[in-house]
Amino acid sequence: MAAVYPKQYKSFTTHKNLVEDIDASHVNNLQDEVLALQQTLGVNPHQDTALKMMTNRWASVAARLDAIQRGKGIPVCYMTKTSHTLRPPKTPVSGVAERVTIPFARPPLVNDPEGIFNGSGSVTTNRTGWWIASAYCRGSILQEDPERWLGIAVGGKRAVCHTVTHNFNGYSHTTVFWQGPVAAGKKIEMIERNPYGGKTYTLDEINFAVSMLREL
User: Fold this and answer.
1) Of 10, 90, 161, 164, most Cβ neighbours within 10 A?
2) Other residues' Cβ atoms within 10 Å of the Cβ of residue 153
3) How many CA atoms lie within 13 Å of 142's alpha carbon, on the beta-carbon side?
């Protein structure tokens, strides 16, 4: 007889020793329902093996579901540093100053629990999904200019950029946001462009955060 779970609950009869004979169907029904439970949960249901770089393991399915509700297992990475110098640019044959990836040191495990930081100041996505990135910088004595900007690149292509703007207290700052679908294995980078040869500018606060909202 085929199992009824997971479409409905199986109803069992309580049997008594030395009063009735146990039929083979009694045991077979139990086996069918146990197999249905296993097939519904799958192999290693307490693990998440979909990641490209690691496997998350929990003590039980209940613990895994609780972690999912808290957002654990969603790829995130937060990078920050207190100072950075925008170096003079190299100008290619086209005459357009290059853009560069802002370097960061490897963040602590709490800021990058799934190891998506790739060691070059950017992250490599470990799941295909909807990703969100934000970049922020602040510096002193920067002139506002449309040619000097901070941006975010996805898959090696500029996705968005903002001009570094000057505010009333003598600081220049900008915040850039981007979100969209990204395939696993693509880079998301914080990039800058400073087209003025011979001039360097120092930033005193730089933050870059990347996280996946949901899988696709």
Assistant:
1) 164
2) 20
3) 29
